[in-house]
């Protein structure tokens, strides 16, 4: 498990990602949740429960309260204020984004692939923090985790032109930069640049991660955060 100390230092019990070294085989959904919890415990992290969602490249955000049932809901972002609930999303080139209100202790873990970024899911998660928890954007830190980088994210010219017109960042080498695109959306919403952290690791050219574009159609990396 790779831990993201950059954001953990603000008061999180855990922020990190499970990689190829941790997840070596494809399991059923129930088995995956059990395996993820077991790996966390092996790393000295003891969640009360692991909450996952059915991801569909949407802009849906699920809020987890203290008495929510454990049924897997359709969403691409999860938010909680409850300590001990490990929020988990799966990624294999898409961007995991951690949002943490350092004063009110509210955590969001967001799945922002190309479609989620086009739909501005990170801004919609920030709006949830504001509307449902009265978060102050000055108190929020964000971490952009490992994903396919601008070094590798080539797309057809017509699609690049379309997403450029939608406000996403295209590099001089005609690739999509999901890191800068999400950073731009965070800044546009009012998150301070100094509070935006980035791992800057490409899942496509770094062999320790699963990558959909390199042929990993079933296995995934798991981004996990817990208050």
Question: Summed up, what is this model?
Answer:
It contains 6 helices and 15 strands.
**CATH-assigned fold name:** CNF1/YfiH-like putative cysteine hydrolases
Structural class: alpha/beta
- Supply the CATH architecture: 4-Layer Sandwich
Please give the CATH class.
Answer: Alpha Beta
Spatially, the strands of the biggest sheet line up as: 5-7-10-9-11-14
Helices and strands in order:
Elements: E1 2-3, H1 5-8, E2 14-18, H2 29-42, E3 49-51, E4 53-54, E5 61-64, E6 73-74, E7 77-80, E8 85-91, E9 95-101, E10 106-112, H3 114-118, H4 121-133, E11 140-144, H5 157-165, E12 169-170, E13 176-177, H6 178-189, E14 196-198, E15 221-226
Parallel strand pairs: 3-8, 4-6, 5-7, 11-14
Antiparallel strand pairs: 1-2, 2-15, 7-10, 8-15, 9-10, 9-11, 12-13
């Amino acid at each position: 498990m790779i831990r993201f100390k950059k954001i953990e230092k603000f008061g999180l019990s855990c922020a990190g990602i499970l990689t190829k070294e941790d997840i070596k085989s494809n399991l059923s959904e129930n088995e995956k949740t059990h395996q993820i919890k077991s790996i966390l415990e092996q790393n000295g992290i003891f969640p009360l429960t692991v909450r996952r969602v059915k991801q569909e490249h949407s802009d849906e955000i699920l809020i987890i309260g203290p008495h929510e049932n454990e049924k897997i809901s359709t969403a691409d972002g999860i938010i909680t204020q409850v300590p001990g609930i490990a929020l988990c999303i799966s990624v294999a080139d898409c961007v995991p984004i951690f949002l943490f209100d350092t004063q009110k202790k509210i955590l969001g873990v967001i799945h922002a692939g190309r479609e989620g970024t086009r739909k501005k899911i990170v801004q919609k998660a920030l709006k949830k923090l504001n509307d449902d928890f009265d978060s102050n954007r000055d108190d929020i830190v964000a971490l952009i985790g490992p994903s396919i980088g601008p070094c590798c994210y080539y797309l057809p010219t017509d699609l690049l032109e379309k997403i450029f017109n939608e406000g996403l960042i295209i590099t001089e080498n005609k690739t999509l930069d999901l890191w800068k695109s999400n950073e731009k959306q965070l800044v546009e919403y009012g998150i301070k640049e100094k509070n935006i952290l980035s791992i800057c690791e490409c899942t496509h050219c770094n062999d320790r991660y699963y990558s959909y574009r390199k042929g990993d159609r079933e296995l995934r990396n798991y981004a996990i955060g817990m208050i």
